[in-house]
Design goal:
The chain has 7 helices and 2 strands; from the N terminus they run H-H-H-H-E-E-H-H-H. The protein is mainly alpha-helical and 178 residues long.
Length: 178
């Protein structure tokens, strides 16, 4: 009979105990989360290897404008990927439609089982933002002109969204006053 001593357990048994103790009776896809983390680390490693092979040099520092552009582009891309009605086709294998969420966005619930971890990543703008910021940052080093163009376009779309919302609020305010 095995004791609670991790040194006397197989890795599989140890992992089952850790997963059970962590989950507290809930269904938590730790294996999926581990796969996501390993995938992210692998992609960062590939980008670093490609950059090194191509002789790409990291910038000494980024300007405030570069950081603002990256931030707004990451925000807009993460909203497009995780909430847009049009991109729901990409999330559908991992989610279920729950209803409209306002301005061209949808609410979705994450499916259970093996698809849960991917579903969380695909529906969470905070979670996907890390991946998107990493991809855009790598792009600024490996393909700066194309990535700069993409980031500028995403930032323009974000600004356009905010202007649409402000315009709608102004129209509603005018209608309420009349």
């Amino acid at each position: 009979m095995r004791t609670g001593n991790p040194a006397s357990m197989s890795m599989g048994e140890w992992w089952r105990r850790v997963r059970s103790a962590y989950a507290g009776g809930e269904q938590r896809p730790l294996g999926g989360y581990a796969a996501s983390l390993l995938s992210y680390a692998g992609l960062v490693g590939v980008a670093a290897a490609v950059g090194r092979r191509r002789g790409a040099r990291l910038p000494e520092r980024w300007s405030t404008g570069d950081v603002v552009l990256l931030s707004v582009a990451t925000h807009k891309a993460s909203r497009l990927v995780t909430k847009s009605a049009v991109t729901s086709v990409l999330r559908a294998p991992f989610t279920r439609y729950d209803g409209a969420a306002g301005e061209a966005e949808v609410n979705e619930s994450v499916r259970a089982g093996a698809r849960h971890a991917v579903g969380e990543l695909a529906t969470c703008p905070f979670c996907s933002g890390v991946w998107i910021a990493g991809a855009l940052t790598a792009g600024r080093v490996l393909a700066p002109r194309a990535t700069g163009l993409l980031m500028t376009a995403l930032t323009a779309v974000a600004a356009s969204d905010w202007l649409h919302l402000a315009y709608d609020r102004a129209k509603q305010g005018a209608a309420d006053r009349s």
